[in-house]
């Protein structure tokens, strides 16, 4: 049975009512919602709505079960947006689930990831207490930045109830270039060169199956046209039409390139590790990989019934760690090592072990 609290008080009651609980959202990342035997799931989908929005302060506060697409629509009405481009918005991803998975999209390349935009959280800890950490303004008091611990936490420290974020003004215009790249080594070199260039790309993604790098520029339209000419003077490529660009970026955000019903995993990395990870994906049966944020993150996909054990071992050999978002595989892949401070926070917030362990094995 899944509890569906409709208020923060009911959320506290739901946590206290069971010795083992797991918070879940809309199910767009189903592996994170897979509960062990004897664990009660608590869905936040009824904790929905923007509770505060200060456009002049560029901040908003919303309940954890609020769909990201609703937040995006409200911000767009005031010419603002979440620059880290939260993925799976069209699929119904919630704000709390996005934080728990630690998912950032293409805009992370220029502006930073989700971790750089979260200001405060209200959450229920393992003792059923409703706690507030962080604040509701950009200029906050100094101290231990606990809200960032919830980014990618997969429900291990508490159940998120309400979150506060800062936002940015939406760019006046965008322009996307497609630059052919023959293979992983050329993709990595292109990432490195663009990252050092003066163009300040807003997003930089690569699709090895398409043998191309996609570069998105943002700002005043005349300036973008001039920058595009400069880029294309250095490398062959093309400017995508507005419709083609919109389709591409929507596909990136919804993982349209991945195997439907198969495994999907997020893997943080550095650009220098890109060729080795591409080789690992190529060595798996129908393995697919997408490189994002200028090579600082990758997503791997295997077909249903693929080889998750080989993926796990391969990541371990490369010294990389992954998080399974969907598919039949361990939640955490590769070489996973939680810092000692994470264990200390876990002991403080969940002394009875109500929430999933740091090491799910």
Descriptive key words:
361 residues; alpha+beta; 5-stranded antiparallel beta sheet; globular
Q: What is Rg?
A: 20 Å
| Average residue-wise pLDDT | 94
Strand order of the largest sheet: 4-5-9-7-8
User: What share of the residues lie within helices?
Assistant: 25-40%
The biggest beta sheet reads:
5 strands, antiparallel
**What's the oligomerization state?**
single chain
Query: Which structural class do the helices and strands define?
Result: alpha+beta
Strand fraction: 25-35%
| pLDDT < 50 stretches | none
Number of helices: 10
Q: Using DSSP, what is the number of strands? A: 19
Run of helices and strands: EHEEEEHEHHEEEEEHEEHEHEHEEHEEH
Task: Explain what the structure shows.
With about 350 residues, this protein is α+β, with helices and mostly antiparallel strands. Helices cover about 25% and strands about 25% of the residues. The chain is built from 10 helices and 19 strands. It has a 5-stranded antiparallel β-sheet with strand order 4-5-9-7-8. Strands 16-17-15-18-19 form a 5-stranded antiparallel β-sheet. Strands 12-13-11-14 form a 4-stranded antiparallel β-sheet. A hairpin with a 4-residue loop joins β4 and β5. The longest helix has 14 residues. The chain is globular. About 45% of the residues are buried. The mean pLDDT is about 95.
